[in-house]
Amino acid sequence: MSDSQISFDEAKLTKYRELQEAGLTLYPAHYERKQTLGEIKETFAEIGHDQSEEEVVTAGRIYALRHHGKTIFVDIGDASARMQLYVRKDDVGDEPFEFIKKYLDAGDIIGATGHVFRTKMGEITVWVSRFDLLTKSVCPMPEKFHGLKNTEQRYRHRYLDLIMNEESRQTFRTRSHAIAGLRNFLNGRGFMEFETPTLQSVYGGANARPFITYHNALEQQLFLRIAPELYLKRLVVGGFEKVYEIAKNFRNEDIDTHHNPEFSMVEIYAAYHDYEDMMNLTEEVITHLVESALGTTTVTFAGNEISFARPWRRLSMEDAVKEYGGIDVYATPLDELARIAEKEGVEKCETAQTHGDYLPLFFDHYCEEKLIQPTFIYDFPVENSPLAKRHRSKPGFTERFELFVNGMELANGFSELNDPLDQKQRFEEQDAKRRLGDLEAQMIDYDFVNALGYGMPPTGGVGIGIDRLVMLITGNDSIKEVILFPSMRTIATQGGEDEAEESDEPEEKQE
């Protein structure tokens, strides 16, 4: 099905028209549901075969109908649970019973009034005395025994995935709870949440290619933010000492199992902290969220058992390349590093000119995918860390760290650069790279430099990827599984066959 195609089912549309002509309200504005299905199951967990004295009024979406002569079993579900309804012709009357047989389909949403009992098969069931049609579905539901498994359809039509797959609903419940837990954790430690601009005249806070737009009234080019960092640090300058933002960021880059152009991060800044403090805070918050979600600090992800029990390993970038690549970068001549890089196929090494240029490239090539257990990589070269404070004891380095888990970068933090003249120089170096064609280099944010000129206290900052964290907590190895509406190529319907992304799963048969 293309993005511009509506998949109404003709048989359902016929029923819709007949009911409309009969004067029936197909989409009433209100229904007084008194119990959710989950509440019914909890309240009547000990129910026997006799009907309850208490009447229940509930509602849900129909997943299946099974006709047995003068009785019909209806499987319905809501946000809390699924349950069986038992409808008997003698109880509801001839006309309502025939209405169910003729007009109700999987996908419809109904209300049901009745009494609870347990069937001989042991299933808690509502014995229906009255039902109400609340929403008539006119699109086909996936085949009931196999559900919706086609990965492209699940991502492209997430609403249908959520209707059909409890696993997907649970993933996004976990995501919601994790974000709420993150807020509670930070608020409880004195941090304040703020919102900063999504549309920016100068993008910054990371090395990434931006999305570009245009504001008609202002008559100027704007960028979707790649990070909220520079605005949050303006708040620290202004006197808010512990701040954070749960932000949507936008980066005009590749899409793969770990990257989506629109993604969620939390960025956290604390005055009078440094990168060691922020590593400790990162450990605390992630361990707390994992344990809160799972009841344990151990997760299984992509076939690996990963322990988030503290403390986590900490390794300098230099030592990581020595350990996993067998190369002492700063003790190796530049021409030899170039030869090794070419021989080993190290990516993006063509423009490397210094040892500090080569170190992160060798790290990416030799180390990143081998970091399975939570590991902080710290002390980055100044060449690729334009917003981090210069190292207090290692010339040519910055006080920066990244957290890796199962080969994924999960967090990035600094002792924040607060020297306005040094920041201006770093921005100018970045801008020179940008003008030479580096699409990920940063612009000069003169106003931010000006803000630093008024004085920012020593500050530690960290950004944590929410999507990737939820991937680890839920055991999903694709970022599209944890983003409700991931970026997808638009399917074209003009000029030929639909253009769709490839999927390993066959198309689902639809009724």
Layout of strands and helices, then pairs:
Blueprint: H1 10-21, H2 37-43, E1 55-68, E2 71-77, E3 82-88, H3 89-92, H4 94-103, E4 109-118, E5 124-135, H5 151-156, H6 158-164, H7 166-187, E6 192-193, E7 199-200, E8 212-215, E9 220-224, H8 229-237, E10 242-250, E11 262-271, H9 275-294, E12 298-301, E13 304-307, E14 313-316, H10 317-325, H11 334-344, H12 355-366, E15 375-381, E16 397-405, E17 408-415, H13 420-435, H14 446-453, E18 459-465, H15 466-474
Parallel strand pairs: 3-5, 6-10, 14-15
Antiparallel strand pairs: 1-2, 1-4, 2-3, 4-5, 7-9, 8-9, 10-11, 11-18, 12-13, 15-16, 16-17, 17-18
Helix pairs in contact: 6-7, 7-9, 7-15, 10-12, 13-14
Question: Overview of this structure, please?
Answer:
The chain has 511 residues and is an alpha+beta fold. Helix 6 crosses helix 7 (166-187) and helix 10 packs across helix 12. Strand 12 and strand 13 form a beta hairpin. It has helices spanning 10-21, 37-43, 89-92, 94-103, 151-156, 158-164, 166-187, 229-237, 275-294, 317-325, 334-344, 355-366, 420-435, 446-453, 466-474; strands at residues 55-68, 71-77, 82-88, 109-118, 124-135, 192-193, 199-200, 212-215, 220-224, 242-250, 262-271, 298-301, 304-307, 313-316, 375-381, 397-405, 408-415, 459-465. The strands form four sheets. The chain has an eight-stranded mixed β-sheet with strand order 6-10-11-18-17-16-15-14, with helices on both faces. A five-stranded mixed beta barrel has the order 1-2-3-5-4. A three-stranded antiparallel β-sheet has the order 7-9-8, with no helix packed on it. The radius of gyration is 29 Å and the shape is elongated. The protein starts with 9 loop residues before the first helix and ends in a 37-residue tail after the last helix.
